[in-house]
Amino acid sequence: MRRHRKVKIVATLGPASSDHATIKALFEAGADVFRLNMSHGTHAEQKARFDIIRQIEAETGRPIAVLADLQGPKLRVGVFADGAHDLQVGDSFRFDLDDAPGDATRVQLPHPEIFAALEAGSTLLVNDGKIRLRVEDFGPDYANCRVTVGGSISNRKGVNVPDVVLPLAALSDKDRGDLEFACSIGVDWLALSFVQRPEDVIEARNLAKGRAAILSKIEKPAAVRAFAEILKVSDGIMVARGDLGVELPVHSVPPIQKRLVRACRSAAKPVIVATQMLESMIESPMPTRAEVSDVATAIYEGADAVMLSAESAAGAWPVEAVSTMDSVARSVESDPTYREVIESSRSVSRESVADAIVGAAREVAETTDVVAICAFTKSGTTVSLTARERPRVPIIAMCSEETTLRRLCLTWGAHCVRTPELERFKQAVVNAAKAAREFGFANETQNIIVVAGVPFKTSGTTNILRVAPCDERLIYRTDPE
After folding, report:
1. One of 12, 123, 275, 381 is an active-site residue; which one?
2. Rounded to two decimals, what is the model's pTM?
3. Is 275 a catalytic residue?
4. pLDDT tens for residues 236-294?
5. Is 76 marked active-site?
């Protein structure tokens, strides 16, 4: 019997993973979703990677999700006449709109939106937070600051403004072009950077026009504060811990991660934990014990997916990084403590017939000899609600819509299987039994649960649960037409 890994693995493609052989090796090692990072590479390069993914999908007969990650607006200082300067604690330093090369006392910050949003006492962070400055005096075109943490400031280093909401759209002109490109080639998910408010997500959704699901990256303090509203208008969430750890005290990130994962689980929306998960594997074939523990923590929390960034995109050991993540996941999921943690953190309110049906499916599966839950879906909702229950048995997601199946590749526990168009529930039961046997989840002597909405082809109608044998002869003998 095949062991089924429930947490999904997202692997970023890049210079180290752009050819057919490597991408297929990543898939075979355990990658469920491939991320195209729109911050790097040309559209032609990303299209070539996308085409290879779809070739592998056709070769293997398994749905594969593609996630395009938009860059978002990048805030950077200008250039210095001498390339770099050391700032000492207590120094005065000025940011302004003047494009003259900077020196030890000032540099251009070509973002008037920042000056418009500042307050006295605001913090400016430079170079991933390595340099910290406190705003003492400001106007529409300048900010005079005092250095509170010193360091070397150099050309075009990034700037973060953690304690104000910036009047900047999450989508730059580049992002709009990248979004249209990604939707035109057929990506399944769009990851939206620099989200500060729900309106940012709504703008991206309006531009996508249903062609891709919207995943909001939580990487700014403003997004953490407005998380409940952002979650409502998003299809999924990424906990982007890198920028969160720059703009917030680093010790606050783990509890934020735990809180966001639990909220996404409750809302039945997929959540990815991302950034620096196996960072040392960029250069080493072995991760550190701390990194393994970090991956395991996200899995114990019930995250839908864990993500590799530079490890698979530019590292020396991309396939090994996926294999390591897969091994960690299988080890965690086979630990009896995992079930205890997952079940004690389950938070589900029963507000609809669909909620009750999937809740009953889990309870029946856990108290009988049922070996899998087969969830038929059109929009993906039935599978998402089933996954929210975090059942002990595998979830077989069955759908005739290729787009829906690919998006569900990001959902915890969902093993996605394409079915023909179905007219009657009996056909669904037979197809479910065949899929359970074909993919190694059951044999003819075992039982499965089938959940579906009748009539078929109608979204949001989950209303039927059937315990069925995997022996089709018994189905035909016992089930009415």
Report:
1. 275
2. 0.94
3. yes
4. 999 999 889 999 999 999 999 999 999 999 999 999 999 999 999 999 999 999 999 99
5. yes
